[in-house]
Amino acid sequence: MDHNKMALPVGATLDRFIMRKQEDFPYATGELSQLLRDIALAAKIVNREINRSGLIDIAGAYGSQNVQGEDQQKLDVVANIRFIRALRNGGEVCTIISEEDEDMIQTGNVQGKYVVAIDPLDGSSNIDVNVSIGTIFSIYRRMSPTGLDGTTADCLQPGTHQVAAGYIIYGCSTMLVYTTGNGVNGFTYEPSLGEFFLSHPNIQTPATGTVYSVNEGCSELFEAGVTAFVRQCKERHFSARYVGSLVADFHRNLLKGGIYFYPATTKSPGGKLRLMYECNPLAFIVEQAGGKSSSGTRRTMEIEPQALHERCPVFIGSKELVEEAERLIAESAGAPA
Ligand SMILES: O=P(O)(O)OC[C@H]1O[C@](O)(COP(=O)(O)O)[C@@H](O)[C@@H]1O
Ligand SMILES: [Mg+2]
Ligand SMILES: [Mg+2]
């Protein structure tokens, strides 16, 4: 046995883990590894801001709206600035799609091989009330040649083209969970050492569960198949859990089993969540952990994006629960199950 190649023990630092994973790819140039480190660095800085958000003047609205027409919170803007700065300074990223910016952000790193889509602060409505929030990121390799800014085509790639994806959850503890298409691993931040340590190696999500996460306040606006699925969850005495921060609801269900869904409603026919920096990255992670993600009728990662901030309905989590939701939606639409 090649003892040098054994799996890294729980407690290994993120840095060592990234290096070890890079060794698995003989032709790896280290750029993606460096990009993951840049994201981890920005996460540490944003974590510090969040942890003291009740003390310093960082709470509340910023006074402007983003392209989605949502009031930006100060922490949305701070997190956006921190991540963009780290990605720009890191040099590996040519173009960024951010929830907080209408247009593509060209970093000026024309030699950069990667495009990043990011939700700098997820769960904005929970910032001021000390409930878990997060950051979600998705990484693609550019298709256009280096030497120029990234293009719209570089940004509008389907989820199946992702080379890495992850999220940071700022909760009871701060964790970074990511995949490069080779399993899902979780790292817990130790602030006194300023390091992320491997705490959740090779995460596998249970095939089923007894938790459903949906904003039932909109249930009057659900289509028949979704209503039937919610009814079934209740008939099975599932527990309703809804934090209102996608990252927090997703993370719980990833570890314990369950399903989160934000369906299309008559009010928002495209759903609420954004394909490029919310649905696709979490879909990549859940699939790598043995779960499933769907729009209700098709695999999330096979959706061809048409716009940077397009929305899509999402059903994500334990495989059997997502398939059950799809079956009831198909049935109610009269399509063969
Ligand atoms: O308040 P609603 O309609 O239930 O929406 C909550 C959902 O919206 C979000 O807050 C959207 O994300 P942002 O906070 O990044 O805009 C999700 O985190 C959450 O799951
Ligand atoms: Mg979000
Ligand atoms: Mg956000």
From TrEMBL:
Please give the catalytic activity noted in the UniProt record: beta-D-fructose 1,6-bisphosphate + H2O = beta-D-fructose 6-phosphate + phosphate
Q: Which GO terms describe its cellular component?
A: cytosol
Q: Does the keyword Cell membrane apply?
A: no
Residue span(s) of domain Fructose-1-6-bisphosphatase class I N-terminal: 13-201
- Subcellular location per the Swiss-Prot or TrEMBL entry: Cytoplasm
What does the record give under GO molecular function? Answer: fructose 1,6-bisphosphate 1-phosphatase activity; magnesium ion binding
- Amino-acid positions noted as binding substrate in the UniProt annotation, renumbered to this chain: D122, G123, S124, S125, N215, Y242, K272
Hydrolase among the record's keywords?
yes
Which PANTHER family does this one have?
FRUCTOSE-1,6-BISPHOSPHATASE-RELATED (PTHR11556), SEDOHEPTULOSE-1,7-BISPHOSPHATASE, CHLOROPLASTIC (PTHR11556:SF35)
Q: What is this protein called?
A: Fructose-1,6-bisphosphatase class 1
Native species: Hymenobacter nivis
Q: What is the lineage of its organism?
A: Bacteria, Pseudomonadati, Bacteroidota, Cytophagia, Cytophagales
Gene that this polypeptide is encoded by: fbp
